[in-house]
Amino acid sequence: MLEKTAFPIDRIRVPVKRAKTLDAMKVKTLAESMLEEGQLTPIRVRADGENFVLIEGLHRLEALRALGEETVVGYLVHARPH
């Protein structure tokens, strides 16, 4: 079972392909919602050495970054061996 953890936002890398899907209006809307309700849904990341790579939750991550937050709640997912 996955466990919620707080991850430092500055240690999460967003893959270029995923970053291209960023919608600024969606980030703004989420940021406004998070001001009132907090982060409701955790993001998903995988380990990359001492840092992390975003798997899911780009808009949530960017909304928290825009709000000046230093951490984001998420799940650490383990990559499957090929």
SSE layout:
Blueprint (H helix, E strand, L loop, with lengths): L3 E5 L3 E2 L2 H4 L4 H14 L5 E6 L2 E6 L1 H9 L4 E6 L6
Parallel strand pairs: 2-4, 3-5
Antiparallel strand pairs: 1-5, 3-4
Explain what the structure shows:
With 82 residues, this protein is of the alpha/beta class. 33% of the residues lie in helices and 30% in strands. It contains 3 helices and 5 strands. The protein has helices spanning 16-19, 24-37, 58-66, and strands at residues 4-8, 12-13, 43-48, 51-56, 71-76. It has a 5-stranded mixed sheet. Strand 3 and strand 4 (51-56) form a beta hairpin. The longest helix is centred in the middle third of the chain and has 14 residues, at 24-37. The model has no long low-confidence stretch (mean pLDDT 93).
